[in-house]
Design goal:
Elements (H helix, E strand, L loop, with lengths): L2 E5 L4 H10 L10 E5 L2 E8 L6 E2 L2 E5 L9 H8 L5 H5 L6 E3 L2 E4 L9 H11 L5 E9 L4 E9 L3 E6 L2 E6 L10 H7 L7 E4 L8 H8 L3 E6 L2 H13 L6 E5 L2 H4 L7 E4 L9 H7 L4 E11 L6 H12 L3 E14 L2 E11 L1
Parallel strand pairs: 7-8, 12-13, 12-15, 13-14, 15-16
Antiparallel strand pairs: 1-3, 1-5, 2-3, 4-5, 6-7, 8-9, 10-11, 16-18, 17-18
Helix pairs in contact: 2-4
This protein binds S-adenosylmethionine.
The site of S-adenosylmethionine has 20 residues, from β13 and α8.
């Protein structure tokens, strides 16, 4: 558990100094600025404390803690075990999901991977395992990962007030989609929603927890992801909102019932546009269509594909926004088109 005190920005320097003097500042994490409905705040990371307030400010459990990337420190830990050439190739960043460290290690450090994992684990005493990332692929978007050190690969990651239980060697969890998961948590109040590529509940869970739709039908084809989807529905207590369906959304999606359809999949998403439009109510609704696209086509191809699919079904399209989610690979962007489909 990572704790922080939440303070008004103008108190930042004063409280930071007090935290250093009082030896409760956690120097492994960043001081973070955030904007909430209540205004702007700073989160000062603090070491594990038993009290509920420090200097009169609340101690909270920090979601998505941001760690200071201290390559010098990982290199420092490895000095003496690795040559100068090897030290220069040591990773400078890694990703923490729940209590698991996920790191990419270059092939030529293969025989030093356990040493690197030991060094990382010593830097994050609250973490239990280190997993090597070797890429992602296939229809199920399953990662290729190797447990290097530690006691397991299943964890519960907490984000934006939601719990995501997962096995990091079996399902993906993109840190680049963080903002999109948050954005989905603000949409769908009172609506009927279909999440065609639900995974472990990346979008369905935040929407169900925060926006309170009437119903979300969440479809997932991979039995391993589906098992976590069901578990996450239970963990987040949204059994009354989400109906999970194991199956292929091109056959399992309902027709004519949704106010909103989420298409959170990349690669061949356009093949499913017809089914997504049919899932919307007769008089229409909103589509969130994801696509990976070369940068120079990002503002044209995804919109054109939505328009073409709608035209084939005799529907009208109003593109509300095309937004960049992240850089997917060199020269390729992951974008999402928000479009209103109508009669
Ligand atoms: C991994 S998620 C996408 C991730 C998500 N955009 C995020 O926030 O990270 C896509 C999911 O769609 C599922 N999937 C792929 N084809 C499908 C289909 N035809 N029907 C239902 N689910 C499908 C995959 O198994 C995968 O779990």
């Amino acid at each position: 558990m990572y704790r922080a005190i939440r303070i008004p920005p103008e108190k930042g320097e004063e409280i930071r100094e007090k935290a250093i003097a009082g030896k409760f500042l956690d120097i492994t994490r960043k001081i973070r600025k955030l904007q909430t409905k209540e205004g702007a705040f700073l989160e000062i990371p603090v070491i594990e404390v038993a009290c509920e307030a420090i200097e009169g400010f609340p101690v909270i459990e920090q979601e998505n803690p941001e760690f200071l990337e201290i390559p010098a420190s990982l290199k420092e830990c490895l000095k003496g075990s690795l040559s100068e050439t090897e030290l220069a190739q040591v990773p400078s960043g890694w990703h923490i999901l729940g209590d698991i460290i996920i790191v990419s290690i270059p092939e030529n450090l293969e025989n030093k991977k356990i040493l690197i994992a030991e060094a990382l684990l010593s830097m994050y005493p609250k973490c239990k395992s280190v997993v090597r990332d070797l890429g992602i692929g296939g229809q199920f978007r399953q990662p290729e990962r190797e447990l290097l050190l530690g006691s397991g690969t299943e964890t519960i990651h907490k984000e934006h007030g939601c719990f995501f239980k997962q096995d990091v060697t079996k399902v993906m969890y993109s840190k680049g989609n963080l903002e999109e998961r948050k954005r989905m948590s603000l949409l769908g109040a009172g609506e009927t929603v279909v999440d065609m590529f639900a995974g472990i509940g990346y979008f369905s869970i935040p929407m169900a927890v925060h926006a309170k739709p009437e119903k979300i039908t969440s479809i997932e084809i991979n039995p391993e992801s589906f098992a976590y989807l069901k578990e996450n529905i239970r963990l987040n207590r949204v059994e009354d909102v989400i109906i999970p369906i194991l199956g292929d959304c091109s056959q399992a999606a309902p027709e004519g019932e949704a106010d909103r359809v989420i298409m959170g999949y990349v690669g061949t998403t356009h093949h499913y546009l017809g089914q997504a439009i049919k899932a919307l109510k007769e008089n229409g609704g909103i589509l969130h269509y994801h696509e990976t696209v070369p940068e120079n086509l990002a503002m044209t191809r995804p919109e054109e594909r939505v328009k073409k699919a709608a035209e084939l079904l005799g529907k009208k399209v109003e593109v509300l926004e095309t937004r960049k989610i992240k850089k997917y690979s060199p020269g390729v962007l992951h974008v999402v088109v928000d479009a209103r489909i109508s009669e």
